[in-house]
């Protein structure tokens, strides 16, 4: 055995904790709070965690509790969380996984990798910044004009709300400057479509944007990662849209009162958002049980790797679907489009998904244990929302006592940093064996 | 590519369907039903499915709806399902997986396997019959004496109830000759302990019994399969016991009214049963939300491979826990007690667990979609109970309309035959590639 270096995941964990600490202190300043006095420590901590992890969950009414300065802080923290920290942390994560992958490649002699080489990192960060800036500018401009022209909001206020919402959308966060959220705009295509597209672009992931930028004319040459992410995202968007449209069509609490175009728009928005956006135009708490269960599933899957979205990620989910399919057919290799998926990658995906299930199950149990009168499905929805940094709510978060808020904070943190990364950071340093034990095949199933 | 033989899983699926068809016809005979007329087709089908899959779920009151002849049929079907079909089918499944394993071994040059060679099958069947017969005899004898002496039941009736319950216990089924189930015996150690031990022995699995019989004095020489099953079962029994005892201690609907010894006994029974028994002495429907969630988890895991228990199986669950642990520590091999777990086995476990999740999620969604006024947690409990062939109920099954009963029947069938086996039987015949594609490593998580 040889001693290993400290796990790089610890650096990511510490960076996130540091950012949350700074955010908490800033939100505790009296100037951050509307009216007199300053925020309570827990409220500041929960809100900073929510912003840095780009969840958008709230325990207070964002519009009235925080001052204009506080709102600016939230926008900056969201941006820092979504782009600065998240993207960089995920890039760091990629480097870690490439280091592992490198070891694997040396052992197996594999030919290709995830399509992101070390030297490209600087280039990728610049690209991500450019995409972010351009997307947010377009959304902010449309939002501003629409508010000014149609809703008669003064130009300055309209522009600020436009920028704020653009930042929230691209970063898949869900804070709102209005107490009623965006429900005013439920039938407004000029507001909803740009915001939702912003959520999708922000949630697709830097490596995919990078590759599409380079090779847009040759999808056939895309890496498996890009094909899985793009194809999988389209499937999940369709599932979300059809589920909400079909199951909520006649629900008087959600799509029922809307006209047909309004139903379509609202289904598009509400079907997209669980993939980790955070705003809503209808009440998720009023949805039917089956819609709600599908939303929970979509939240768990989340968006693209190295994106502002959360969840176990689109590639993880679809890769595991291929693993199941391979096993059902009794084939030797997991093959996706003429590429064999490395066994180390399969195991990584298994660990990410199952550890996600374990964390969500534990969080839900703890929440049920420390509260009373909360049903399992509401607890699960809220914990899943936090874990996937979706930030949606059935209304439970606002009612939770301090212990419950801490549980959700922990879920947001673990979900954002990544289950495997958090667990790795907590694990003892690994000593790598230089020998291998004999193989055995226990009976499973 | 070379054409493959038809998948052997189809044989198992057809055998189960045939047994259920025969059972349905027998239960439709007027002589099977108490009073006049005969059972409805759906009731007979549901009950036959429940008996053959050793679930024990009921849509009618077993004690009053079926005649004495019907009760004998249920005992025979339970026995046929639990021992005859289940054990043989599972042995067939083992042969299949060994055939696959053999291919894997030829490729990887692995040294050891699951400890069950082809030539041993006859020996294993005899052993299983002996263990079954001996266990049931002991339980039936204790039960009979106790009923006769303490409850003043006439000897003939006491002996019949003893035999009936012994068959139910060993086969992890849950039919009862009393309308109130076994709640009368909640504080009776002479009744509860033998029945619960019978559930445990029946649910440990033939390969493990076989190996313990051969090598009882050398646990150090046990295969990984036996060590995982025995160790894992002890852990799960402890979790179930502690969870029920701690969380239900003061619940007036469950353990609350009992004295301390009664609480301990009831926690032992109710903590063991979700692993796939089926009887109960307190009402699972009255349990707290968090206890109920833990019971759902225990049902999903289930008992030992090639046993009368259901679920994804103890080895599958703990093997995946080791996979996660290995990934978190960034190690190359999944090592359990100085044995490296084959990558093919890891992938098999992943497929079994995830396909299980997918089936239960789908079943729950369908049940929610076709019923109204059913909460997600109750639907999930009932679907999980059917899938894991546990047969526990919160009371929902008795209220379900025909569509809901069919959903649960499908869940019992899929759960008993095995998700991967059913899916394999449905899949197109596989053509094995004689070449391999280049390897790729998509980013996951
Ligand atoms: K969010
Ligand atoms: K059962």
UniProtKB/TrEMBL annotation, chains A, B:
The keyword Transmembrane appears for this protein: yes
Topology of the protein relative to the lipid bilayer: Multi-pass membrane protein
Annotated InterPro entries: Cat_transpt
Membrane-spanning residues: 12-29, 41-60, 72-96, 124-145, 188-209, 230-249, 295-328, 349-370, 406-428
Compartments, record wording: Cell membrane
Entry keywords, A to Z: Cell membrane, Ion transport, Membrane, Transmembrane, Transmembrane helix, Transport
Organism superkingdom: Bacteria
A family per Pfam: TrkH
Keyword Transport annotated: yes
Protein name as it appears in the record: TrkH family potassium uptake protein
Organism: Paractinoplanes bogorensis
């Amino acid at each position: 055995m040889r001693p290993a270096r400290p796990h790089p995941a610890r650096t990511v964990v510490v960076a996130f904790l540091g950012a949350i600490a700074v955010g908490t202190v800033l939100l505790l300043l009296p100037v951050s709070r509307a009216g007199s006095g300053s925020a309570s420590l827990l409220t500041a901590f929960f809100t900073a965690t929510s912003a840095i992890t780009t969840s958008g969950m709230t325990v207070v009414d964002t519009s009235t509790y925080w001052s204009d300065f506080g709102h600016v802080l939230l926008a900056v923290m969201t941006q820092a969380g979504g782009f600065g920290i998240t993207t960089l942390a995920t890039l760091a994560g990629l480097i870690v996984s490439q280091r592992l992958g490198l070891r694997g490649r040396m052992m197996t002699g594999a030919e290709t990798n995830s399509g992101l080489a070390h030297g490209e990192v600087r280039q990728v960060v610049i690209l991500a910044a450019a995409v972010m800036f351009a997307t947010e500018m377009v959304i902010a401009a449309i939002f501003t004009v629409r508010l000014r022209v149609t809703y008669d909001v003064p130009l300055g206020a309209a522009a600020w709300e436009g920028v704020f919402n653009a930042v929230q959308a691209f970063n898949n966060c869900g804070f709102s400057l209005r107490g009623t959220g965006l429900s005013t705009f439920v039938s407004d295509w000029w507001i909803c479509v740009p915001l939702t597209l912003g959520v999708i672009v922000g949630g697709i992931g830097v490596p995919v944007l990078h590759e599409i930028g380079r090779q847009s004319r040759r999808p056939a040459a895309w890496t498996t990662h890009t094909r899985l992410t793009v194809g999988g995202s389209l499937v999940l968007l369709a599932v979300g849209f059809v589920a909400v449209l079909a199951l909520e069509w006649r629900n008087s609490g959600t799509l029922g009162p809307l006209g047909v175009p309004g139903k379509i728009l609202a289904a598009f928005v509400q079907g997209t958002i669980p993939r980790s956006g955070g705003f809503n135009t209808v009440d998720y708490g009023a949805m039917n049980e089956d819609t709600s269960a599908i939303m929970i599933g979509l939240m768990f899957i989340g968006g693209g790797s190295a994106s502002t979205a959360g969840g176990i990620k689109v590639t993880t989910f679809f890769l595991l679907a291929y693993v199941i399919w391979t096993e059902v057919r009794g084939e030797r290799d997991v093959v996706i489009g003429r590429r064999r998926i490395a066994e180390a990658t399969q195991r990584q995906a298994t660990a990410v998904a199952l550890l996600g299930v374990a964390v969500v199950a534990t969080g839900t149990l703890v929440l049920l244990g420390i509260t009373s009168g909360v049903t399992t499905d509401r607890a699960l929805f809220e914990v899943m929302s936090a874990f996937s940094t979706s930030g949606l709510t059935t209304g439970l978060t606002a009612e939770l006592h301090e212990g419950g808020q801490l549980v959700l904070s922990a879920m947001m943190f673990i979900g954002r940093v990544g289950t495997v990364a958090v667990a790795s950071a907590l694990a003892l340093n690994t000593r790598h064996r230089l020998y291998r034990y004999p193989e055995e095949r226990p009976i499973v199933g």
